[in-house]
Automatic annotation (TrEMBL):
Keyword list, A-Z: Cell membrane, Membrane, Transmembrane, Transmembrane helix
Alphabetical list of Gene3D superfamilies matching this protein: Transmembrane di-heme cytochromes, Chain C
Residue ranges of every copy of the Cytochrome b561 bacterial/Ni-hydrogenase domain listed in the record: 27-199
UniProt-listed PANTHER family: BLL0597 PROTEIN, NI/FE-HYDROGENASE 1 B-TYPE CYTOCHROME SUBUNIT
Topology term for the membrane: Multi-pass membrane protein
Superkingdom, natural source: Bacteria
Record's protein name: Cytochrome B
GO cellular component terms listed in the entry, alphabetical order: plasma membrane
An individual GO BP term: respiratory electron transport chain
Record-annotated membrane-spanning stretches: 33-49, 55-75, 119-141, 165-187, 214-232
Subcellular location: Cell membrane
Entry's Gene Ontology molecular function annotations: electron transfer activity; heme binding
Amino acid sequence: MNNTPTLHPADATAQPAPAKVPSRRVIDAPTRIFHWLFALSFVGAYATADGEHWRLLHVTLGYTMAGLLGFRLLYGIFGPRTSGLGLLWRKLAGAPAWLRALPQAPSVTQINWRQGQNLLMALTIVLLLALVVPLTLSGYATYNDWGAALGGHWMGEVMEEVHEFFGNALLFVVLAHIALIAGLSVLRRKNQALPMLTGRVEGKGPDLVPKNRAWLAALLLIATLAFGAWQWQQSPNGWVASGISTEHQRHQDDD
Ligand code: HEM
Ligand code: HEM
């Protein structure tokens, strides 16, 4: 018996099932997990920055960002070539030449705007990563009263101000980063945020990043959650109402 369905003449115009749109991997799983954990930690740390109530959560999210930065740097060094931070530097190194070419361009239409946009993106990314260093250091110093120990009360105040300044500087760069991605999505008529979710862009050809390394992404996620859980366990009151660090608590208990 022949079970092959025969096409009714009325169905002859029916479209065949659409073929899967070809796509290529451009961002691997560890980078994507890193990105969203980094972004979420920032939002959380910023939202809990004010007042003593959420202090431990704030500090934990801040350390999480620093830890994630450490991961990203190591992945940049030991990971695949495509995740190397040298790529970012090479892009930025083109900035002086691009700026020098600006006044010489015969007309605005002859300026390589796409390179300019990519330069701006690379610049915001470097700043997003780099700002976490002074932010964590100044936060740590404030939390542990280094200022007071070094130069008295006013020094502590300065440390706080420095920390707040870097916190707001990072917020500014984050907003620029998001605005740039939204702006480029409109300009290029293509959702520029999507690859950070799916890891892929539409198009034929081999994957630009051959391996997804989902196992490393899972490890990073577990390590981050474990750190949060460990911090929680260390705290006498959970996340809230812990205006004093566990270090301070221990000193007080000893007294
Ligand atoms: C809705 C919010 C966000 C969207 C849609 C988004 C999207 C993206 C996209 C598409 C890239 C890749 C850019 C490229 O290489 O062309 C990227 C990179 C990056 N973003 Fe975001 N981002 C968001 C929020 C944030 C936040 C809040 C932070 C940090 C506080 C952040 C930090 C970074 C970093 C560090 C990179 C470089 C990633 C790497 O190569 O390791 N992003 N983001
Ligand atoms: C990396 C992400 C971080 C961000 C975005 C951030 C942001 C901020 C901001 C904006 C404030 C000022 C709140 C205000 O008074 O208006 C603040 C306060 C504070 N942060 Fe952070 N912070 C981060 C990490 C850390 C870390 C890692 C620590 C400690 C180890 C820390 C400790 C503190 C302390 C103790 C204060 C209170 C200062 C005061 O008494 O005014 N922060 N943070």
